[in-house]
């Protein structure tokens, strides 16, 4: 089995579970939502994030260029699930499967948002296993807070905090009109 197949199987399972838990189906129910709920039931965006800038708090000659790409499905206006693929700072292929919550109009500012995600990170193995806390055979828990500033109708610039390691700067684009599964 290829060394990356385990994290992708885990990530896929977590995403499937998130999508499944987000759905409730009652065949006897009237499918017309009340007006207040209609907005929350509207198609939700799929968001693609590209993060080419990683800044570490401490310089280390072992650090390599890290690049992150992620895709998120918003289950409603605030809840989301996602998968990020990246090369960690030590050159190892890595993944982060997560669920999160998104606060829009953060601090009363219409263009500012806060997002917090929590999930499973895979990829810090071998001599770099101690670079993330609670690592077990390459798997470790992760929590990533992110501050975003909206640019235009569908874009945002994001600052993601990587705990004591550093920050990531990225750009996100939401593709509107995807129905939540």
Poorly predicted ranges: 14-27
Domains counted in the coordinates: how many? 1
- The Cα radius of gyration reads 18 Å
**What does the largest sheet look like?**
8 strands, antiparallel, barrel
Structure characteristics:
44% strand; globular; 181 residues; mainly beta; 8-stranded antiparallel barrel; 14% helix; 2 helices
Overview of the molecule:
The protein is mainly beta. The chain has one domain (5-14, 54-175). It has two helices and eight strands; from the N terminus they run H-H-E-E-E-E-E-E-E-E. It has an eight-stranded antiparallel β-barrel. Strand 3 and strand 4 form a beta hairpin. The longest helix has 18 residues, at 5-22. The model is unreliable at 14-27 (pLDDT under 50).
Summarize the structure.
The protein has 2 helices and 8 strands. The protein is mainly beta and 181 residues long. Residues 14-27 have low confidence and may be disordered.
How is this fold's topology laid out?
Elements: H1 5-22, H2 35-41, E1 46-56, E2 68-74, E3 79-87, E4 93-103, E5 112-122, E6 139-151, E7 155-162, E8 166-175
């Amino acid at each position: 089995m290829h060394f990356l197949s385990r994290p992708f199987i885990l990530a896929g399972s977590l995403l499937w579970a998130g999508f499944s838990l987000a759905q409730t189906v009652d065949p006897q129910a009237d499918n017309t939502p009340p007006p207040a709920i209609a907005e929350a039931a509207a198609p939700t965006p799929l968001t693609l994030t590209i993060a080419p800038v990683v800044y570490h708090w401490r310089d280390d000659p072992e650090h390599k260029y890290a690049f992150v790409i992620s895709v998120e499905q918003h289950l409603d206006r605030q809840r989301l699930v996602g998968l990020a693929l990246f090369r960690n700072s030590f050159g190892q292929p890595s993944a982060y499967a997560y669920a999160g919550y998104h606060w829009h109009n953060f601090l009363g500012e219409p263009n500012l948002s806060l997002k917090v995600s929590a999930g499973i990170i895979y990829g810090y193995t071998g001599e770099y296993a101690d670079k993330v806390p609670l690592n077990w055979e390459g798997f470790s828990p992760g929590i990533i807070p992110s501050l975003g500033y909206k640019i235009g109708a569908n874009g945002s610039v994001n600052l993601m905090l990587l705990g004591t390691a550093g920050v990531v700067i990225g750009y996100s684009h939401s593709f509107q009109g995807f129905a939540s599964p």
